[in-house]
Amino acid sequence: MSPTDIPPSTLDTPEPAMLFNPRTYDPAQFDEPTRRLLRATVDWFESRGKKALIDTYIDRAWYADFLEFAAKEGLFAEFLTPSAADPEKRWDTSRIAELNEILGFYGLGYWYTWQVTILGLGPVWQSENEAVRARAAKLLAEGHVMAFGLSERSHGADIYSTDMVLTPDGEGGFTATGSKYYIGNGNVAGLVSVFGRRSDVEGPEGYVFFAADSRHEAYHLVKNVVNAQMYVSEFRLEEYPVRAEDVLHTGKAAFDAALNTVNVGKFNLCTASVGICEHAMYEAVTHAHNRVLYGKRVTDFPHVRRELTDAYARLVAMKLFAARSVDYFRTASPEDRRYLLFNPMTKMKVTTEGEKVIDLMWDVIAAKGFEADTYFDKAAKDIRGLPKLEGTVHVNLALILKFMANYLFAPAEYPPVPTRQDAADDEFLFRQGPARGLGAIRFHDWRAAYAAHGHLPNVARFREQADGFCALLLEHAPSAEQQADLDFLLEIGQLFALIVYGQLVLEQAELTGLDADLLDQVFDALVRDFSAHATELHGKASTTEAQAAWALAHVRRPVADGARAAKVWGMVEALSGAYEMPA
């Protein structure tokens, strides 16, 4: 039997609305200018076609055509200029997340040039330097991209250490000398936000953020440090003149601007990961469902259905968590900084789930996943990068742990957080204030979301595991020695992160009316994940006997339901043929 012999009725089931599909995309939740720009972006990629997408990726061609399109449409200027810089524009995390997903769907490189522009703008929009703010707004309007000059070859993104040195010039300014490494857009950026330190001031008071221009003669582009279509530069400044009007931040404010910029930019990785997985899933399901081996359709094999169903459920959870996180970003204030937990969660948890989704599909399509004329081949390479940008998984897990005690044991009252897709400017993101006090942030009671869905068997089973985790911390808390053992502590962090992940998944499922069987299938995966991390904790060298006994006691099997699994499989099956990028 060939694919053309497959009964068409199995391919004509309407696709589930959960995944982005360019064929049917209608961002009706946004205002007209936003809808037009999002749809224009999709149409540009679709009209350009798959061959051009693949060829430029393989040739590592700089995406000048995309940047020309974005400049012509005013895409970056419209989406990345806050109202304080232009009253006709706004910084709207909801539509920024939407564009992240679209750009990820077509390729990491297109998203990356946009992402590092966001990072480059962070210190500018946080600055009180009106001249540089006006310059940045003008550059965006002219179609320029930006860069974030923080990391260095010797120090990485360790902002306590920098070899970019600013020497006073005796006229109120400085000359800057030093190198920066792994700086996206550093080849063409109209404005580069550069972090350095003064030669004449010791300690944190000597930090400086300043604006540089990649076109200046004292700005030397060294090389592209990655073998990819994107340009991730090494550049060097040699006595670069930094005028007083180029200075964005000094002292501790420069340090805070660096961290707060990463708070804003780190979030974008999750929705890019979602977009990559969505495109890859259309390819993988269509290939598997139309392939016949040993006289059977590949998707008739039980293990194939299980893997693709698991991939789909995990992808749905990624979308739910990311979408709900947007709401907390947009309602943040000095009194409500819950977003500072959900932010590293999106960076760490959603992006690592993206890796799992790709791996599950790759197990099904096997050699097809290596073929050069597929999107999947690119997705399998690029999905690995997202958990490793803006801090590693380990760095983000260590950050997440700072919130654990208050999140689990000290709930506070907050007004309900609604879905935030309104056309408002998220101005608080550029006045976050000092980057400290994370351990004092309070959260609403996580148990409420679980209680509202306790009738679902796997939500109830996962809740048992979550309650057990609280008991572990109260009855067998990590000792001082264990708290110094990062290998042990990170496994605690993984267990905690699952509880946070599940909470926002449940909240978004409630807000969107997600199918109950699909939600229970999501928690089938979370029950298994909790059991896997409990097993890892059991095996750690520093785990005590009591903690090891707890770990084994909280390994659970998810509640199986053949009818539920068949229903969710029908959602996956409907993806076959639902989208293919035009040639």
Number of helices: 21
Low-confidence stretches: 1-16
Q: Which assembly state applies to the chains in this document? A: single chain
Structural class: alpha+beta
Rg from C-alpha positions?
24 Å
Q: Helix proportion of residues, in percent?
A: 40-55%
Overall body shape:
globular
Structure, described:
This is Acyl-CoA dehydrogenase family protein. Belongs to the acyl-CoA dehydrogenase family. Keywords: FAD, Flavoprotein. It comes from Kitasatospora misakiensis. Pfam families: Acyl-CoA_dh_1 (PF00441). The protein is of the alpha+beta class. It is built from 21 helices and 10 strands. The strands form 2 sheets. Strands 1, 2, 3, 4, 5, 6, 7 and 8 form an 8-stranded mixed β-sheet that branches. The chain has a two-stranded antiparallel ribbon with strand order 9-10. Strand 9 and strand 10 form a beta hairpin. Helix 5 runs antiparallel to helix 6, helix 5 packs across helix 9 and helix 10 crosses helix 18.
Features:
583 residues; FAD; eight-stranded mixed beta sheet; two-stranded antiparallel sheet; single chain; alpha+beta; disordered N terminus; 10 strands
